[in-house]
Design brief:
The protein folds into two domains: about 20-255, TIM Barrel; about 260-305, no CATH class. Helix 2 links the parallel strand 2 (about 40-45) and strand 3 (about 75-80). The protein has twelve helices and nine strands. It is α/β, with parallel strands linked by helices. The model is unreliable at about 1-10 and about 305-313 (pLDDT under 50). The radius of gyration is 20 Å and the shape is globular. The chain has a seven-stranded parallel sheet. The chain has helices at about 30-35, 55-65, 90-100, 115-130, 145-150, 155-160, 175-180, 190-205, 220-235, 245-255, 260-275, 290-305; strands spanning about 20-25, 40-45, 75-80, 105-110, 140-145, 210, 240, 280-285, 285-290.
Length: about 325
């Protein structure tokens, strides 16, 4: 993982997040709906989901929600407003207000370069010090919503060790569509290469557990499943979603089935037997496998069954 941030790069292990559900910052009561839907994480949104004249009240509401004792397994993130001088750096105060012990991470919109990440990293380090939290406690999830940011995804991923869940969001009519100029289609052909390249940049930068999104059609659940399956095939670990009805499908797509997990167990056992007999590559269920494939299978089991593996949590 990159270590260019303001600390030595040692951060808590990040777990994969299959589903990250947006919840309006002025509707924190809806967190119970997010948890009931089974979302791995909820993103309390102080940016697009809240009118300008309601942002101050929403900030206080979100800060209170984060501060409340929370015993569930769902992680809490907050999407703050962009860090820029146009807003008079009000979002720096916003970040400080919500960066509290109950928070998993900050979603940072309108990132334009690695400099934005380094600034947010310093602010979060200060918040961690203020609350007596270890360095790197807060994850930082950059949103790549400009052509420049998409082009510089690798540098953004390496700008701070706390960067996690980096990926490409390609909702119809969103910031990315306007920035790049493509014409969105349900099959995702026009964004396939973009999502694949950002995924590669995130992996190369060492940013853990990339996520993609968004599927905007609330009623087209078949389309959602196809889009999620496409993202999983590319290598993403999860997706951001905008409605509770999308959570179950996304969780299902990004979770290996019992048959798949059983196959990973058989593959590991076959490789270990072969190694005990002095062999390397062997034939397994019609394919050639070796230790590298066994290591990948151990990583899958580590994430989904708590089995020790090289990827950790």
């Amino acid at each position: 993982m990159g270590t260019e941030g303001s600390y030595d790069g040692r951060v808590p292990a990040r777990a994969p997040l299959r589903s990250l559900l947006f919840v309006p910052g002025n509707r924190t009561g809806w967190l119970t709906k997010a948890e009931a839907a089974g979302a791995d994480a909820a993103i309390l949104d102080l940016e697009d989901a809240v009118p300008d004249d309601a942002k101050a009240a929403a900030r206080a509401e979100v800060a209170e929600a984060v501060s409340r004792s929370y015993d569930g397994g769902m992680r809490l993130l907050v999407r703050v407003n962009a860090l820029n001088s146009t807003a008079g750096w009000a979002s720096a105060d916003e970040l400080r207000a919500v960066a509290r012990p109950g928070l998993y991470g900050i979603v940072l919109p309108k990132v334009s370069s690695a400099d934005d990440i380094r600034l947010a990293d310093r602010l979060l380090s200060w918040c961690e010090h203020e609350h007596g939290l270890p360095q790197g406690h807060f994850a930082l999830v950059p949103l790549l919503e400009t052509a420049r940011a998409l082009r510089e995804a690798y540098d953004i991923g390496r700008a701070a060790a706390r960067v996690a869940h980096l990926g490409a969001l390609t909702a119809p009519g969103g910031d990315v569509e306007r920035a790049v100029g493509y014409r969105w289609s349900a099959d995702g052909t026009e964004t396939h290469e973009l999502r694949a390249r950002v995924l590669l940049d995130a992996r190369a930068a060492g940013s853990p557990h990339p996520v993609s999104g968004l599927w905007a059609d609330l009623a087209d659940l078949a389309g959602l499943r196809r889009f999620a399956e496409q993202n999983r095939a590319l290598g993403y670990d999860g997706m951001m979603v905008i409605h509770p009805s999308h959570v179950a499908i996304v969780n299902d797509v990004f979770s290996p089935g019992e048959d798949e997990l059983a196959r990973h167990e058989r593959l590991i056992a076959a490789v270990e037997r072969a190694q005990a007999e002095g062999s390397g590559a062997i034939r397994f269920e019609g394919r050639m496998i070796d230790e590298a494939m066994a290591a990948a299978s151990r990583d899958v089991l580590a994430r989904h069954r708590g089995v020790s593996g090289s990827a950790g949590a």
